[in-house]
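Changelog-linked ticket: D-sorbitol-6-phosphate example.
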Amino acid sequence: MIGLSPTEISFDATTGALSPATGRYRKHLSHLEGAFRDVDAWSRVIQEGGDPLVYEVMEYKKEGSDLFFGTTTMQPGKVGEEYFMTRGHFHLSRDMGEFYCTQHGKGLLLLQNREGKSETVEMREGSCAFIPPDWAHRSINTGSVPLVFTWFCNVLAGHDYDPIATQGMRMLAVERCGKVELVPNPNFL
Ligand code: S6P
Ligand code: ZN
């Protein structure tokens, strides 16, 4: 790691655009099969809504560094009563956490440990969330504008999507009577 040069990377806090970026990907609703409880609503929004973009991730990784960072930009929207959300994952390296710092919009960070304990941290402009090692994390846009956050973690953290893809998370974030509610996921055992 000796010999790495300091670098400036700029980001746009309202769009999440990163410059320079070393990687990026987009997730449209069709990529999130099985993530939302209401499967009929999921198909309907894809067909009638033209498979909307749910989120985009851009990252900057310096070769040889132990750390990297990026932005996640989440569009507002719902599938049935459930808000747009990320897939959610544990890190493959169980001793590596992460920070999420919200730049724009509002949302909920839903966390869950291996024993199924569920917690949330509010995501709002000017706040950062600490994600402890070995807690799964899923971000949820509960607002009406894009939710943009920067994240920072170790390059060796990795993603383990299987547990959440298989079982979902214990709690769901839904809109009821115009309000954000956390309700138990009936499919989580
Ligand atoms: C990586 C970090 C984020 C997420 C991104 C999308 O450790 O937590 O970059 O990957 O917000 O979420 P997901 O669950 O689809 O990877
Ligand atoms: Zn992560």
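Closing comment: Example verified and attached. The pocket of zinc ion (ligand 2) is lined by residues 89, 91, 98, 137 (CB under 6 Å). The CA atoms of residues 11 and 18 lie 4 Å apart.
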